[in-house]
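Do me a favour: review this protein, sequence plus structure tokens, and tell me how the chain folds. Record follows.
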Amino acid sequence: MAALDQHTREEAGPSAVGRQLSRSPARLRNDRSPPVALAILLVIHGLAHFVGVVAAFDAFEAQEPLGYLGGTWMVENELMIGLLGMLWAALGLGFVFAALAVVTEFGGWERSLTLLGTLSTALCVLALWSSWIGVVVNAVIVGVAVVSSNERFPGPPRLAV
């Protein structure tokens, strides 16, 4: 019984307050651990973006047109194909870095995920129908970012941009 009382006093003492204040805002609640599942999803999604890079640079090397918008827009300009490939790569790397930000609870990861998800959705819509699953995954990512932002910064609902 005395050991239990000593343990209770240690948890409620000044050192406990210091421990709570030194934690990041996302960890103030005991029910939250780093969202590892979200980070894994972001890394997988970022790696999936490199399929677009490979497709763009294969078309660039073969000097063939690259089909976008379900084949209705054929990109034949080599510069444009290269730029689209680099855009796929930049967004893929952005998702990998966002996964690091999520795990380390770097401030503002919600905003960066909202921006990355929106840009990725636009690019996936351009590359329909081969990238339709990316639209669904981006919707989940943006939804998680907005909900997490609203939990972290309570108040009226808002978009985390």
Observations:
- Residues 17-31 have pLDDT under 50 and may be disordered.
